């Protein structure tokens, strides 16, 4: 008696199987950047599949247009297949290794523990005594903030640089030209691929109905994050270049940038979480669902705690609110290379590589 055992395919092998079927069908040729890139090839290496997975924005339009989804024997679910490859690649490229997988599978618990733990640490520092400065610096000196947050900001950048370099080697990237970078930045800024194959938007949270809600929420988060970063940067310039120290007034550059940035970041993150709760989990990487929620939650909480802290200026709540805000910001930066935030770096690299490939084809 013999047993007919069908081996379980790895995420990359399953994605390759599905892409090869798509390559034969070609119904989705007018859809996102994945399909022109796939249809230009006849065979797919592991690096090719990694590149296609990072080009995919999980808009899910191809799934609802496909005639070969379950219960068809081909059982195609390309959004989920590519999502699983993406999550595995983040873990493979992450440095130090293994931390990305830990965050993706236990993100909510890890993020919560980090926020609370770091906030309690800041409260303990405050309990020791006043820092002797004005405003927030009465609770934690400027020197202490720089000593804590500078490494917490630089380390994620270094870790992401290692990851992107590993990604670039796997997908066969060549030396970048300015035109490659420009094309990638323009594509990412417009978020064109979040519209899938229709100008009306994607199918992320409404099944076979189109919507632009996810694209708008992404824009709010991106612009909110950039404005908050610009606010912090402007405060740094004012402090070190013009010897103008915080706290800053309502009509100062840090506040004019930071308040709308915090509002956009909070609203955009809340929108993404609401859409995530509506979306079909079977069309994404199920194992990373909690990690994705934790990442977006940290983004939104960073904006919200900053706004609440500003609103509480001059009250007895400043100490605890500052500890909560700093704990959230520090937790966000420490987890940044291992959360879904890493997808921004890899997707930008994927778009640059896609521009290279198109240029090489002429």
Q: Low-confidence spans: pLDDT under 50, at least 5 residues?
A: 1-6
Total beta strands = 0
Give the number of helices.
13
Q: How many separate domains make up the residues?
A: 2
Specify the biggest β-sheet.
Answer: none
- Percent of residues in helices comes to 55-70%
Look at the structure and give the mean pLDDT: 87
Cα-atom radius of gyration:
22 Å
Strand percent estimate: under 5%
Span between termini: 57 Å
Transmembrane segments: 108-128, 140-162, 220-242, 257-277, 289-311, 317-338
Protein name: Citrate/tricarballylate utilization protein
Keywords: Membrane, Transmembrane, Transmembrane helix
InterPro entries: Citrate_utilization_prot_B (IPR012830), NarG-like_sf (IPR036197)
